[in-house]
């Protein structure tokens, strides 16, 4: 159940019998021809779809993350690592204070990964606290499904182009974009990154048939749900 669809009485009743919840992490950054909110849209919908049959509460996605390398693309917002770690830690602290103990973080943005030590510190500081950090798109079964559809898949390519991240009435290139040189990306500032990647797609087709995308989504939802249901002992 999405927290945005609940009142506090309902959350309190949930906590009488269960202490699980889900916290999605997103970002606001360029995704070529797709929404700037792709990562937030995907992480929150993934969490909500996976949690729906279980009734586990899903909090709103944190919409800003760590994306300094895209700051040359207007509309991108990036937090400092120290600020982001504090935000995530204080959200976790709030969840713990109100009774949640088992928290699944569904992360939609690879750049957010450096915050994982803050999650480990939170568990160390709070008795009985458990936190799982789940990069939904590169979990084993999901990534295998991506590779079976098309191994040339990356940021802002077809693998992030779902009906719910697509913008209406926007035309996309039909060709497959070659991979960018990732080694050259690692030592460039934001303007240098923009010069290397152009429109923002790191490589691959811009869109695949929706039938394939729904099949991929189903695999990812089931894999995410398994983490909610799994052994927390």
TrEMBL record:
Q: Which cofactor does it need?
A: Zn(2+)
Q: Name one GO biological process term.
A: riboflavin biosynthetic process
The molecular function GO annotations come to:
creatininase activity; hydrolase activity, acting on carbon-nitrogen (but not peptide) bonds, in linear amides; metal ion binding
Keywords (alphabetical) are: Hydrolase, Metal-binding, Zinc
Superkingdom in the source lineage: Bacteria
Family, according to the entry, reads as follows: Belongs to the creatininase superfamily.
Q: What is this protein's name?
A: Creatinine amidohydrolase
Task: Supply the source organism for this entry.
Answer: Granulosicoccus antarcticus IMCC3135
